[in-house]
Write a structure and sequence with these properties.
By secondary structure, this protein is α+β, with helices and mostly antiparallel strands. It is built from 18 helices and 21 strands.
Length: 565
Amino acid sequence: VVEKQLAKDGKRKEDIGRAEFEKLLWAWKEEYGSTIINQLKRLGASCDWEKTRFTMDSEYSDAVKETFIRLYKKGLVYRGNYIINWCPRCKTALSDEEAAHKDIDGWLYYIRYPIKDSRDYVVVATTRPETMLGDTALAINPSDKRFKHLKNSAVMLPIVGRQLKVIEDEAIDPEFGTGAVKVTPAHDPVDFMLGKKHGLEFINIMNGDATLNENVPDSFKNMDRFQARETLITLLKEQNLIDKKEPHTISAGHCYRCNTIIEPRVSLQWFVKTKPLAQPAIKVVQEEKIKFYPQRWKKVYLNWMHNIQDWCISRQIWWGHRIPVFYCQGCYESDDKTGSKKGIIAAKEMPDKCPDCGSKELVQDPDVLDTWFSSWLWPFATLGWPKPTEELKFFYPTNCLVTASEILFFWVARMIMSGIEFIGDIPFSDVHIHGTVRDEKGIKMSKSLGNIIDPVEIIDKFGADALRFSLMLSAASGSDVYLTEERFLVGRNFCNKIWNATRFILLKIEQNNIKINDLDIDSTDPIDSWLLKELNATIASVSSDIDKYSLNEATKKIYDFFWHV
Protein backbone atom coordinates (compact mmCIF):
# COMPACT_ATOMS: atom_id res chain seq x y z
CA VAL A 1 0.00 0.00 0.00
CA VAL A 2 2.80 2.42 0.92
CA GLU A 3 4.65 1.55 -2.29
CA LYS A 4 1.51 2.43 -4.27
CA GLN A 5 1.33 5.77 -2.45
CA LEU A 6 4.95 6.48 -3.39
CA ALA A 7 4.27 5.49 -7.01
CA LYS A 8 1.65 8.25 -7.26
CA ASP A 9 4.50 10.71 -6.66
CA GLY A 10 6.64 8.94 -9.24
CA LYS A 11 8.92 7.40 -6.62
CA ARG A 12 10.07 3.92 -5.63
CA LYS A 13 11.14 2.79 -2.17
CA GLU A 14 14.72 2.57 -3.47
CA ASP A 15 14.59 6.31 -4.22
CA ILE A 16 14.06 7.24 -0.56
CA GLY A 17 16.12 4.49 1.07
CA ARG A 18 15.37 1.78 3.61
CA ALA A 19 15.34 3.93 6.76
CA GLU A 20 12.94 6.53 5.33
CA PHE A 21 10.71 3.82 3.85
CA GLU A 22 10.44 2.11 7.25
CA LYS A 23 9.38 5.46 8.80
CA LEU A 24 6.52 5.67 6.25
CA LEU A 25 5.49 2.09 7.07
CA TRP A 26 5.35 2.78 10.80
CA ALA A 27 3.38 5.98 10.16
CA TRP A 28 0.88 4.01 8.06
CA LYS A 29 0.59 1.37 10.80
CA GLU A 30 -0.10 4.03 13.45
CA GLU A 31 -2.80 5.64 11.31
CA TYR A 32 -4.60 2.56 9.99
CA GLY A 33 -3.51 -0.28 12.31
CA SER A 34 -6.41 0.29 14.67
CA THR A 35 -9.05 -0.23 11.96
CA ILE A 36 -9.43 -3.97 12.57
CA ILE A 37 -9.49 -3.48 16.35
CA ASN A 38 -12.30 -0.93 16.01
CA GLN A 39 -14.22 -3.31 13.73
CA LEU A 40 -13.90 -6.10 16.29
CA LYS A 41 -15.16 -3.81 19.03
CA ARG A 42 -18.19 -2.81 16.95
CA LEU A 43 -18.87 -6.50 16.25
CA GLY A 44 -19.04 -7.09 20.00
CA ALA A 45 -15.86 -9.14 20.49
CA SER A 46 -15.21 -9.45 24.24
CA CYS A 47 -11.42 -9.23 24.25
CA ASP A 48 -9.03 -7.78 26.81
CA TRP A 49 -8.25 -4.68 24.78
CA GLU A 50 -5.40 -3.68 27.11
CA LYS A 51 -3.42 -6.69 25.92
CA THR A 52 -3.34 -6.08 22.17
CA ARG A 53 -0.08 -7.21 20.56
CA PHE A 54 1.71 -6.54 17.29
CA THR A 55 4.42 -8.83 15.89
CA MET A 56 6.81 -5.88 15.52
CA ASP A 57 6.51 -4.85 19.21
CA SER A 58 9.87 -4.75 20.97
CA GLU A 59 9.06 -7.66 23.32
CA TYR A 60 7.61 -9.76 20.51
CA SER A 61 10.63 -8.96 18.32
CA ASP A 62 12.86 -10.30 21.10
CA ALA A 63 10.90 -13.59 20.98
CA VAL A 64 11.41 -13.80 17.22
CA LYS A 65 15.19 -13.35 17.59
CA GLU A 66 15.28 -15.90 20.40
CA THR A 67 13.50 -18.43 18.19
CA PHE A 68 15.88 -17.97 15.27
CA ILE A 69 18.97 -18.26 17.47
CA ARG A 70 17.73 -21.38 19.24
CA LEU A 71 16.92 -23.12 15.96
CA TYR A 72 20.25 -22.01 14.45
CA LYS A 73 22.24 -23.41 17.37
CA LYS A 74 20.23 -26.63 17.19
CA GLY A 75 21.05 -27.00 13.49
CA LEU A 76 17.44 -26.55 12.40
CA VAL A 77 18.12 -23.21 10.69
CA TYR A 78 20.69 -23.18 7.90
CA ARG A 79 21.77 -21.06 4.94
CA GLY A 80 22.24 -22.53 1.48
CA ASN A 81 21.81 -22.26 -2.26
CA TYR A 82 18.56 -23.88 -3.21
CA ILE A 83 15.85 -23.60 -5.82
CA ILE A 84 13.22 -21.14 -4.58
CA ASN A 85 10.20 -19.25 -5.89
CA TRP A 86 11.35 -15.79 -6.91
CA CYS A 87 9.06 -12.83 -7.56
CA PRO A 88 10.69 -10.52 -10.13
CA ARG A 89 8.35 -7.65 -9.18
CA CYS A 90 8.81 -7.81 -5.39
CA LYS A 91 12.40 -9.07 -5.86
CA THR A 92 12.12 -11.55 -3.03
CA ALA A 93 11.99 -15.26 -2.33
CA LEU A 94 8.59 -16.81 -1.61
CA SER A 95 7.58 -20.05 0.07
CA ASP A 96 5.57 -22.62 -1.90
CA GLU A 97 2.44 -21.50 -0.02
CA GLU A 98 3.04 -17.89 -1.12
CA ALA A 99 3.26 -18.86 -4.79
CA ALA A 100 -0.03 -20.58 -5.48
CA HIS A 101 -0.25 -22.25 -8.89
CA LYS A 102 -2.81 -21.11 -11.43
CA ASP A 103 -3.56 -22.61 -14.82
CA ILE A 104 -2.72 -20.33 -17.75
CA ASP A 105 -2.88 -20.87 -21.49
CA GLY A 106 0.52 -21.40 -23.07
CA TRP A 107 2.44 -23.39 -25.65
CA LEU A 108 4.50 -26.53 -25.71
CA TYR A 109 7.46 -25.88 -28.01
CA TYR A 110 9.23 -28.79 -29.70
CA ILE A 111 12.86 -27.78 -30.28
CA ARG A 112 15.52 -29.66 -32.26
CA TYR A 113 18.76 -30.18 -30.32
CA PRO A 114 21.56 -31.16 -32.79
CA ILE A 115 23.64 -34.28 -32.17
CA LYS A 116 27.35 -33.49 -32.44
CA ASP A 117 29.15 -34.64 -35.59
CA SER A 118 25.86 -35.76 -37.11
CA ARG A 119 22.98 -34.42 -39.18
CA ASP A 120 20.56 -35.96 -36.71
CA TYR A 121 18.92 -34.20 -33.82
CA VAL A 122 16.73 -34.99 -30.81
CA VAL A 123 13.46 -33.12 -30.32
CA VAL A 124 12.88 -31.69 -26.84
CA ALA A 125 9.56 -30.24 -25.61
CA THR A 126 9.41 -27.28 -23.24
CA THR A 127 6.92 -24.64 -22.06
CA ARG A 128 9.69 -22.15 -21.13
CA PRO A 129 12.11 -22.05 -24.07
CA GLU A 130 14.00 -19.02 -22.68
CA THR A 131 15.42 -21.19 -19.88
CA MET A 132 17.20 -23.41 -22.42
CA LEU A 133 20.00 -20.84 -22.36
CA GLY A 134 20.82 -22.33 -18.94
CA ASP A 135 20.58 -26.00 -19.96
CA THR A 136 23.43 -28.24 -18.82
CA ALA A 137 22.02 -31.68 -19.68
CA LEU A 138 19.45 -33.65 -21.60
CA ALA A 139 17.54 -36.40 -19.73
CA ILE A 140 15.76 -39.61 -20.76
CA ASN A 141 14.10 -42.45 -18.89
CA PRO A 142 16.43 -45.51 -18.76
CA SER A 143 13.60 -47.76 -19.92
CA ASP A 144 12.87 -45.61 -22.99
CA LYS A 145 14.36 -47.57 -25.91
CA ARG A 146 13.76 -44.73 -28.38
CA PHE A 147 16.79 -42.84 -27.10
CA LYS A 148 19.33 -45.60 -26.43
CA HIS A 149 21.48 -44.20 -29.24
CA LEU A 150 21.98 -40.98 -27.28
CA LYS A 151 24.00 -42.68 -24.53
CA ASN A 152 27.21 -42.49 -26.55
CA SER A 153 26.36 -39.24 -28.32
CA ALA A 154 27.01 -35.61 -27.55
CA VAL A 155 23.99 -33.31 -27.77
CA MET A 156 24.59 -29.63 -28.49
CA LEU A 157 22.57 -26.75 -27.05
CA PRO A 158 21.16 -24.61 -29.90
CA ILE A 159 22.14 -20.93 -30.11
CA VAL A 160 24.64 -21.27 -27.24
CA GLY A 161 26.69 -24.18 -28.66
CA ARG A 162 27.32 -25.79 -25.26
CA GLN A 163 27.77 -29.57 -25.19
CA LEU A 164 25.13 -31.19 -22.96
CA LYS A 165 25.55 -34.25 -20.79
CA VAL A 166 22.99 -37.01 -21.49
CA ILE A 167 21.62 -38.52 -18.27
CA GLU A 168 19.16 -41.32 -17.50
CA ASP A 169 16.71 -41.03 -14.63
CA GLU A 170 13.50 -42.77 -13.55
CA ALA A 171 11.95 -39.38 -12.77
CA ILE A 172 11.62 -38.60 -16.49
CA ASP A 173 8.11 -39.18 -17.84
CA PRO A 174 8.37 -40.90 -21.26
CA GLU A 175 4.85 -39.66 -22.07
CA PHE A 176 5.66 -35.95 -21.74
CA GLY A 177 6.49 -34.33 -25.05
CA THR A 178 8.85 -36.62 -26.92
CA GLY A 179 10.20 -38.34 -23.80
CA ALA A 180 13.50 -36.44 -23.96
CA VAL A 181 13.68 -33.34 -21.74
CA LYS A 182 16.05 -30.43 -21.29
CA VAL A 183 17.60 -30.03 -17.84
CA THR A 184 18.04 -26.53 -16.42
CA PRO A 185 19.14 -27.13 -12.80
CA ALA A 186 19.15 -23.46 -11.78
CA HIS A 187 15.62 -22.71 -12.99
CA ASP A 188 13.36 -25.70 -12.36
CA PRO A 189 12.62 -27.59 -9.09
CA VAL A 190 12.71 -31.06 -10.71
CA ASP A 191 15.82 -30.18 -12.71
CA PHE A 192 17.45 -28.87 -9.54
CA MET A 193 17.13 -32.30 -7.91
CA LEU A 194 18.41 -33.96 -11.10
CA GLY A 195 21.35 -31.59 -11.09
CA LYS A 196 22.25 -32.48 -7.50
CA LYS A 197 21.84 -36.19 -8.16
CA HIS A 198 23.89 -36.30 -11.37
CA GLY A 199 26.50 -33.66 -10.52
CA LEU A 200 25.43 -31.18 -13.21
CA GLU A 201 26.53 -27.59 -13.62
CA PHE A 202 24.13 -24.92 -12.29
CA ILE A 203 23.92 -21.85 -14.52
CA ASN A 204 21.71 -19.00 -13.28
CA ILE A 205 20.70 -16.96 -16.33
CA MET A 206 18.47 -14.34 -14.68
CA ASN A 207 18.84 -11.14 -12.71
CA GLY A 208 16.53 -10.31 -9.82
CA ASP A 209 14.07 -8.52 -12.12
CA ALA A 210 13.86 -11.55 -14.48
CA THR A 211 16.02 -9.95 -17.15
CA LEU A 212 18.77 -12.17 -18.53
CA ASN A 213 22.25 -11.80 -17.07
CA GLU A 214 25.84 -12.22 -18.22
CA ASN A 215 25.53 -16.02 -18.49
CA VAL A 216 23.69 -15.84 -21.81
CA PRO A 217 24.82 -14.81 -25.32
CA ASP A 218 25.44 -11.06 -25.62
CA SER A 219 22.36 -10.45 -27.79
CA PHE A 220 20.10 -11.65 -24.94
CA LYS A 221 21.72 -9.76 -22.04
CA ASN A 222 19.36 -7.48 -20.07
CA MET A 223 16.40 -8.71 -22.11
CA ASP A 224 13.13 -9.43 -20.21
CA ARG A 225 12.41 -13.16 -19.86
CA PHE A 226 9.27 -13.07 -22.02
CA GLN A 227 10.88 -10.84 -24.64
CA ALA A 228 13.80 -13.28 -24.67
CA ARG A 229 11.34 -16.11 -25.29
CA GLU A 230 9.93 -14.45 -28.42
CA THR A 231 13.37 -13.48 -29.69
CA LEU A 232 14.68 -17.00 -29.12
CA ILE A 233 11.73 -18.63 -30.91
CA THR A 234 12.27 -16.34 -33.91
CA LEU A 235 15.97 -17.22 -34.00
CA LEU A 236 15.27 -20.96 -33.72
CA LYS A 237 12.76 -20.75 -36.56
CA GLU A 238 15.35 -19.02 -38.75
CA GLN A 239 17.74 -21.92 -38.09
CA ASN A 240 14.99 -24.51 -38.74
CA LEU A 241 15.23 -25.76 -35.15
CA ILE A 242 11.52 -25.49 -34.25
CA ASP A 243 9.82 -28.80 -34.97
CA LYS A 244 6.31 -27.64 -33.96
CA LYS A 245 4.33 -25.98 -31.19
CA GLU A 246 0.96 -26.90 -29.69
CA PRO A 247 -1.40 -25.29 -27.16
CA HIS A 248 -0.67 -26.39 -23.62
CA THR A 249 -2.17 -25.50 -20.22
CA ILE A 250 0.60 -24.43 -17.85
CA SER A 251 0.38 -24.54 -14.06
CA ALA A 252 2.40 -21.46 -13.11
CA GLY A 253 3.16 -20.13 -9.63
CA HIS A 254 2.00 -16.56 -8.95
CA CYS A 255 3.15 -14.17 -6.24
CA TYR A 256 0.47 -13.83 -3.55
CA ARG A 257 1.28 -10.12 -3.18
CA CYS A 258 1.29 -8.84 -6.75
CA ASN A 259 0.15 -11.83 -8.87
CA THR A 260 3.35 -11.78 -10.96
CA ILE A 261 4.37 -15.14 -12.45
CA ILE A 262 7.17 -16.40 -10.25
CA GLU A 263 10.52 -17.60 -11.57
CA PRO A 264 12.12 -20.73 -10.06
CA ARG A 265 15.68 -19.69 -9.33
CA VAL A 266 18.68 -20.95 -7.37
CA SER A 267 19.39 -18.46 -4.62
CA LEU A 268 21.30 -18.20 -1.32
CA GLN A 269 18.58 -18.16 1.37
CA TRP A 270 17.88 -19.09 4.99
CA PHE A 271 15.83 -22.24 5.63
CA VAL A 272 14.22 -24.13 8.52
CA LYS A 273 14.58 -27.92 8.57
CA THR A 274 10.93 -28.78 9.06
CA LYS A 275 10.83 -32.59 9.09
CA PRO A 276 12.14 -32.90 12.68
CA LEU A 277 9.59 -30.29 13.78
CA ALA A 278 6.78 -31.94 11.82
CA GLN A 279 7.00 -35.42 13.38
CA PRO A 280 5.61 -34.54 16.85
CA ALA A 281 3.05 -32.22 15.20
CA ILE A 282 1.83 -35.16 13.11
CA LYS A 283 1.63 -37.42 16.16
CA VAL A 284 -0.62 -35.10 18.23
CA VAL A 285 -3.16 -34.91 15.39
CA GLN A 286 -3.06 -38.65 14.71
CA GLU A 287 -3.69 -39.25 18.43
CA GLU A 288 -6.49 -36.64 18.30
CA LYS A 289 -4.96 -34.47 20.98
CA ILE A 290 -5.75 -31.81 18.38
CA LYS A 291 -9.04 -32.21 16.50
CA PHE A 292 -10.20 -30.51 13.31
CA TYR A 293 -13.73 -29.29 12.67
CA PRO A 294 -14.88 -30.21 10.01
CA GLN A 295 -12.93 -33.48 10.28
CA ARG A 296 -11.96 -33.59 6.59
CA TRP A 297 -9.22 -31.01 7.28
CA LYS A 298 -7.35 -33.57 9.39
CA LYS A 299 -6.51 -35.56 6.25
CA VAL A 300 -5.45 -32.39 4.40
CA TYR A 301 -3.21 -31.37 7.31
CA LEU A 302 -1.58 -34.79 7.64
CA ASN A 303 -0.97 -35.12 3.91
CA TRP A 304 0.87 -31.79 3.83
CA MET A 305 2.85 -32.56 6.99
CA HIS A 306 3.97 -35.98 5.74
CA ASN A 307 5.27 -34.33 2.55
CA ILE A 308 6.62 -31.16 4.15
CA GLN A 309 9.61 -29.42 2.58
CA ASP A 310 12.20 -27.18 4.22
CA TRP A 311 10.84 -23.69 4.83
CA CYS A 312 12.51 -20.74 3.11
CA ILE A 313 12.34 -18.01 5.78
CA SER A 314 14.44 -15.18 4.30
CA ARG A 315 12.82 -12.38 2.32
CA GLN A 316 14.49 -9.61 0.31
CA ILE A 317 12.03 -6.92 1.39
CA TRP A 318 12.42 -4.05 3.86
CA TRP A 319 9.47 -4.46 6.22
CA GLY A 320 9.85 -7.14 8.86
CA HIS A 321 12.23 -8.60 11.42
CA ARG A 322 15.85 -8.34 10.29
CA ILE A 323 17.58 -11.71 10.39
CA PRO A 324 19.63 -11.69 13.63
CA VAL A 325 22.86 -12.75 11.95
CA PHE A 326 26.08 -10.76 11.62
CA TYR A 327 28.97 -11.45 9.24
CA CYS A 328 32.57 -10.74 10.09
CA GLN A 329 34.29 -8.90 7.25
CA GLY A 330 37.62 -10.30 8.44
CA CYS A 331 37.02 -14.06 8.44
CA TYR A 332 33.58 -14.86 6.98
CA GLU A 333 34.07 -17.70 4.50
CA SER A 334 30.88 -19.74 4.70
CA ASP A 335 28.99 -21.16 1.78
CA ASP A 336 26.52 -24.00 1.35
CA LYS A 337 29.22 -26.37 0.09
CA THR A 338 31.61 -26.22 3.04
CA GLY A 339 28.94 -25.75 5.71
CA SER A 340 31.42 -23.60 7.63
CA LYS A 341 30.01 -21.15 10.17
CA LYS A 342 33.23 -19.22 10.62
CA GLY A 343 32.59 -15.49 10.79
CA ILE A 344 28.80 -15.96 11.21
CA ILE A 345 27.36 -14.77 14.52
CA ALA A 346 23.70 -15.34 15.42
CA ALA A 347 22.87 -12.76 18.10
CA LYS A 348 20.06 -10.44 19.18
CA GLU A 349 22.34 -7.40 18.97
CA MET A 350 25.53 -6.70 17.03
CA PRO A 351 28.53 -8.03 19.02
CA ASP A 352 31.47 -5.76 19.81
CA LYS A 353 33.81 -8.06 17.91
CA CYS A 354 33.98 -11.35 16.04
CA PRO A 355 34.42 -14.31 18.44
CA ASP A 356 36.51 -16.12 15.81
CA CYS A 357 39.10 -13.51 14.81
CA GLY A 358 38.44 -10.48 17.01
CA SER A 359 37.62 -8.15 14.11
CA LYS A 360 35.17 -5.32 14.83
CA GLU A 361 34.06 -5.07 11.19
CA LEU A 362 30.65 -6.72 11.35
CA VAL A 363 27.58 -6.27 9.11
CA GLN A 364 24.06 -7.56 9.64
CA ASP A 365 22.29 -9.76 7.10
CA PRO A 366 20.12 -7.37 5.02
CA ASP A 367 17.21 -9.82 4.62
CA VAL A 368 14.12 -9.98 6.81
CA LEU A 369 12.25 -13.03 8.08
CA ASP A 370 9.12 -14.40 6.47
CA THR A 371 6.12 -12.85 8.23
CA TRP A 372 4.91 -16.32 9.22
CA PHE A 373 8.15 -16.88 11.13
CA SER A 374 6.92 -14.35 13.66
CA SER A 375 3.26 -15.40 13.40
CA TRP A 376 3.93 -19.06 14.24
CA LEU A 377 4.95 -17.92 17.74
CA TRP A 378 1.65 -16.12 18.37
CA PRO A 379 0.07 -18.51 20.95
CA PHE A 380 2.95 -18.01 23.41
CA ALA A 381 4.97 -14.96 22.28
CA THR A 382 1.89 -12.81 22.98
CA LEU A 383 1.99 -14.09 26.58
CA GLY A 384 5.55 -12.94 27.29
CA TRP A 385 7.65 -15.92 26.15
CA PRO A 386 10.62 -16.52 26.44
CA LYS A 387 10.04 -15.14 29.95
CA PRO A 388 8.12 -17.53 32.27
CA THR A 389 5.24 -15.10 32.82
CA GLU A 390 2.06 -15.70 34.83
CA GLU A 391 0.03 -15.09 31.64
CA LEU A 392 1.92 -17.85 29.85
CA LYS A 393 1.36 -20.25 32.73
CA PHE A 394 -2.36 -19.43 32.95
CA PHE A 395 -3.43 -19.06 29.31
CA TYR A 396 -1.23 -21.61 27.47
CA PRO A 397 -2.47 -23.89 26.03
CA THR A 398 -5.86 -22.54 25.00
CA ASN A 399 -8.70 -24.69 23.66
CA CYS A 400 -9.94 -23.46 20.27
CA LEU A 401 -8.39 -21.81 17.23
CA VAL A 402 -10.84 -20.32 14.73
CA THR A 403 -9.38 -19.68 11.28
CA ALA A 404 -9.77 -20.10 7.52
CA SER A 405 -8.53 -22.99 5.40
CA GLU A 406 -6.14 -20.93 3.27
CA ILE A 407 -3.75 -20.47 6.20
CA LEU A 408 -3.88 -24.08 7.39
CA PHE A 409 -0.24 -24.52 6.28
CA PHE A 410 0.95 -20.91 6.57
CA TRP A 411 -0.08 -20.67 10.20
CA VAL A 412 -2.00 -23.51 11.87
CA ALA A 413 0.55 -26.27 11.19
CA ARG A 414 3.45 -24.01 12.09
CA MET A 415 1.86 -22.89 15.39
CA ILE A 416 1.50 -26.55 16.36
CA MET A 417 5.15 -27.23 15.46
CA SER A 418 6.49 -24.21 17.35
CA GLY A 419 4.30 -24.80 20.41
CA ILE A 420 5.60 -28.34 20.83
CA GLU A 421 9.19 -27.30 20.08
CA PHE A 422 9.46 -24.29 22.39
CA ILE A 423 6.82 -24.87 25.09
CA GLY A 424 6.61 -28.65 25.00
CA ASP A 425 2.84 -28.67 24.62
CA ILE A 426 0.19 -28.18 21.94
CA PRO A 427 -1.09 -24.58 21.59
CA PHE A 428 -4.78 -25.55 21.28
CA SER A 429 -6.93 -28.69 21.27
CA ASP A 430 -9.55 -27.77 18.65
CA VAL A 431 -9.16 -26.16 15.22
CA HIS A 432 -12.40 -24.77 13.79
CA ILE A 433 -12.01 -24.13 10.06
CA HIS A 434 -14.59 -21.71 8.69
CA GLY A 435 -15.20 -20.70 5.10
CA THR A 436 -13.70 -17.77 3.24
CA VAL A 437 -15.89 -14.72 2.65
CA ARG A 438 -16.28 -14.13 -1.09
CA ASP A 439 -18.27 -11.69 -3.17
CA GLU A 440 -21.31 -12.70 -5.22
CA LYS A 441 -19.02 -13.69 -8.13
CA GLY A 442 -17.05 -16.07 -5.93
CA ILE A 443 -13.95 -13.87 -5.76
CA LYS A 444 -12.25 -13.64 -2.35
CA MET A 445 -12.95 -10.26 -0.75
CA SER A 446 -9.86 -8.07 -0.85
CA LYS A 447 -9.16 -4.41 -0.20
CA SER A 448 -6.78 -4.34 -3.15
CA LEU A 449 -9.55 -5.61 -5.46
CA GLY A 450 -12.07 -3.18 -4.00
CA ASN A 451 -14.76 -5.86 -3.56
CA ILE A 452 -15.05 -5.77 0.24
CA ILE A 453 -18.07 -5.06 2.41
CA ASP A 454 -17.09 -2.85 5.37
CA PRO A 455 -18.57 -4.46 8.50
CA VAL A 456 -18.89 -1.08 10.21
CA GLU A 457 -21.15 0.16 7.39
CA ILE A 458 -23.33 -2.95 7.76
CA ILE A 459 -23.51 -2.46 11.53
CA ASP A 460 -24.53 1.17 11.06
CA LYS A 461 -27.23 0.09 8.62
CA PHE A 462 -28.53 -3.18 10.09
CA GLY A 463 -26.91 -3.62 13.52
CA ALA A 464 -24.15 -5.88 14.85
CA ASP A 465 -26.54 -8.71 15.79
CA ALA A 466 -27.99 -8.76 12.27
CA LEU A 467 -24.50 -8.97 10.75
CA ARG A 468 -23.33 -11.76 13.05
CA PHE A 469 -26.54 -13.79 12.69
CA SER A 470 -26.56 -13.43 8.89
CA LEU A 471 -22.95 -14.60 8.59
CA MET A 472 -23.54 -17.66 10.78
CA LEU A 473 -26.70 -18.53 8.89
CA SER A 474 -24.82 -18.26 5.57
CA ALA A 475 -21.74 -20.22 6.64
CA ALA A 476 -22.40 -23.91 6.11
CA SER A 477 -19.78 -26.02 7.88
CA GLY A 478 -16.39 -25.26 6.35
CA SER A 479 -17.89 -23.88 3.13
CA ASP A 480 -17.17 -20.47 1.65
CA VAL A 481 -19.64 -17.63 2.11
CA TYR A 482 -20.84 -15.80 -0.99
CA LEU A 483 -21.83 -12.46 0.43
CA THR A 484 -23.93 -9.56 -0.81
CA GLU A 485 -25.49 -6.76 1.19
CA GLU A 486 -28.93 -8.34 0.68
CA ARG A 487 -27.79 -11.34 2.75
CA PHE A 488 -27.98 -9.18 5.88
CA LEU A 489 -31.71 -8.58 5.43
CA VAL A 490 -32.41 -12.04 6.87
CA GLY A 491 -30.53 -11.20 10.06
CA ARG A 492 -32.13 -7.78 10.28
CA ASN A 493 -35.65 -9.22 9.90
CA PHE A 494 -34.94 -11.95 12.44
CA CYS A 495 -33.59 -9.49 15.01
CA ASN A 496 -36.60 -7.24 14.43
CA LYS A 497 -38.91 -10.22 15.05
CA ILE A 498 -37.16 -11.04 18.34
CA TRP A 499 -37.35 -7.39 19.38
CA ASN A 500 -41.05 -7.06 18.59
CA ALA A 501 -41.94 -10.42 20.14
CA THR A 502 -40.05 -9.56 23.30
CA ARG A 503 -41.79 -6.21 23.62
CA PHE A 504 -45.16 -7.92 23.13
CA ILE A 505 -44.44 -10.62 25.74
CA LEU A 506 -43.13 -8.17 28.32
CA LEU A 507 -46.20 -6.03 27.81
CA LYS A 508 -48.54 -9.01 28.35
CA ILE A 509 -46.57 -10.17 31.40
CA GLU A 510 -47.01 -6.75 32.96
CA GLN A 511 -50.70 -6.52 32.06
CA ASN A 512 -51.62 -10.02 33.29
CA ASN A 513 -49.15 -10.31 36.16
CA ILE A 514 -47.63 -13.50 34.65
CA LYS A 515 -44.55 -15.00 36.31
CA ILE A 516 -42.22 -16.77 33.87
CA ASN A 517 -40.92 -19.08 36.59
CA ASP A 518 -44.41 -20.49 37.07
CA LEU A 519 -44.40 -22.01 33.58
CA ASP A 520 -43.97 -25.79 33.75
CA ILE A 521 -43.45 -28.43 31.08
CA ASP A 522 -46.17 -30.49 32.80
CA SER A 523 -48.60 -27.60 32.61
CA THR A 524 -52.26 -28.49 32.16
CA ASP A 525 -52.28 -26.11 29.22
CA PRO A 526 -51.30 -28.38 26.27
CA ILE A 527 -49.96 -25.44 24.22
CA ASP A 528 -47.63 -24.34 27.04
CA SER A 529 -46.48 -27.92 27.57
CA TRP A 530 -45.87 -28.53 23.86
CA LEU A 531 -43.99 -25.25 23.41
CA LEU A 532 -41.72 -25.87 26.41
CA LYS A 533 -40.90 -29.35 25.10
CA GLU A 534 -40.02 -27.87 21.70
CA LEU A 535 -37.90 -25.23 23.44
CA ASN A 536 -35.98 -27.78 25.51
CA ALA A 537 -35.41 -29.98 22.47
CA THR A 538 -34.10 -26.97 20.54
CA ILE A 539 -31.78 -25.98 23.40
CA ALA A 540 -30.34 -29.51 23.58
CA SER A 541 -29.85 -29.71 19.81
CA VAL A 542 -28.31 -26.24 19.54
CA SER A 543 -25.96 -26.98 22.47
CA SER A 544 -24.83 -30.19 20.77
CA ASP A 545 -24.17 -28.34 17.49
CA ILE A 546 -22.14 -25.64 19.25
CA ASP A 547 -20.04 -28.30 21.00
CA LYS A 548 -19.27 -29.71 17.51
CA TYR A 549 -18.65 -26.19 16.08
CA SER A 550 -21.62 -26.67 13.73
CA LEU A 551 -22.52 -23.00 14.14
CA ASN A 552 -24.51 -22.84 10.92
CA GLU A 553 -26.74 -25.75 12.01
CA ALA A 554 -27.22 -24.23 15.47
CA THR A 555 -28.19 -20.89 13.94
CA LYS A 556 -30.71 -22.50 11.58
CA LYS A 557 -32.37 -24.31 14.49
CA ILE A 558 -32.69 -21.08 16.48
CA TYR A 559 -34.16 -19.39 13.41
CA ASP A 560 -36.60 -22.23 12.69
CA PHE A 561 -37.78 -22.43 16.31
CA PHE A 562 -38.41 -18.73 16.72
CA TRP A 563 -39.81 -18.13 13.24
CA HIS A 564 -41.92 -21.25 12.69
CA VAL A 565 -42.77 -22.97 16.01
